Amino acid sequence: MATQIGRLNTLRVVKEKEFGVYLDADTLGEILLPKRYVPKQVEIGQEIEVFVYLDSDDKLIATTDFPKAQVGEFAALKSVAVNQVGAFFDWGLPKDLLVPFSQQKNRVEEGETHLLFIYLDQITNRIVATTKVDPLLNREEAPYRVGDKVSVVIGDKTNIGFKCVIDNRFWGVLFFEDAFRQLYKGEKATAYIKQMREDGKIDLSLQEVGYKKVRNILDDVLDYLDAQGGESDLTDKASPEAIYKVFKVSKATYKKALGALYKDKKISLTKEKITKL
After folding, report:
1. How far is Cα 191 from Cα 102, in angstroms, rounded to an integer?
2. In angstroms, what CA-CA distances link 1 with 6, 69, 187?
């Protein structure tokens, strides 16, 4: 596979120097991995996973420090500087990520957090980003079915929930009722398709949909009771935060699980405690 600028690559060591090692990057030639990033006891012929980008002198360089996002991905990042060229964002590497003024949906101010799409400028080979993300999403028919597991990036908070980028391809909505825990802009999470609307919009949930999400934690509840000596005060009256901390599900799902176990006579349940039978 050809070496990609702005992405993680597995490259072979071909030369050792006092200041680092050179890696074979195919058609891009040999790329320096500076000494401070070279793993201990590295040998010629060994393969290393590195991120390839342009340094402050616009020369190709490799690093074993990985950014918060790669070319072709969305990320919510914080602006750390603005000058006559554009806004610069912290993406986890020494060289900040540029969003030129021409790629800003609204003028970016220092200290703001924005959802960005990172791409490679085909003319300069520079890694840049844009805040004009809407035209980059929903460009095809979504292939999902209800219950599908997807990767999401949490975007802006709205009056009904959170906008989310699904698999770097589609917009989705995570309603507050389906979030059930604190979320942060830019956070990467696993979600599930809750509903595919006729207008093409996609509803998400942070937990599996339908009774499957309940069935999946029944054994977890019983194992937890065993670990607690057969009894627990984590009843259906507990706070959503306390329930999520232990079982990573919403309070509603937990209550349904307790109800199923009670119906099957596997637990007894009072306001104060749960007891395994």
Report:
1. 33
2. 15, 20, 30
Per-residue pLDDT at 75:
93
Please count the other Cβ atoms lying within 10 Å of the Cβ belonging to residue 74: 24
Torsion sign (Cα): 89, 90, 96, 97: negative
Residue 5's φ and ψ, nearest 5 degrees, are: -75, 135
Residue 53: exposed, middle, or buried by beta-carbon count in 10 A (0-12, 13-18, 19+)?
A: buried
d(CA 77, CA 58): 22
Taking CA 250 as the corner, what is the angle to CA 142 and CA 186, rounded to the nearest 5 degrees? 55
Q: Tell me, what's the pLDDT at 212?
A: 62
- Average per-residue pLDDT for the chain: 89
Asked if the model's pLDDT at residue 209 lies above 80, the reply is no
Instruction: Work out the number of other CB atoms within 10 angstroms of the CB of residue 15.
Output: 12
Domains and CATH numbers, the chain: 8-63 (2.40.50.140), 74-134 (2.40.50.140), 149-205 (2.40.50.140), 212-276 (1.10.10.10)
Q: For residues 228 and 220, what is the distance between their CA atoms, to the nearest angstrom?
A: 12
So what's the pLDDT on residue 265?
84
CA distance 53 to 56: 10
Give me 269's structure tokens. 């349940």
DSSP 109: -
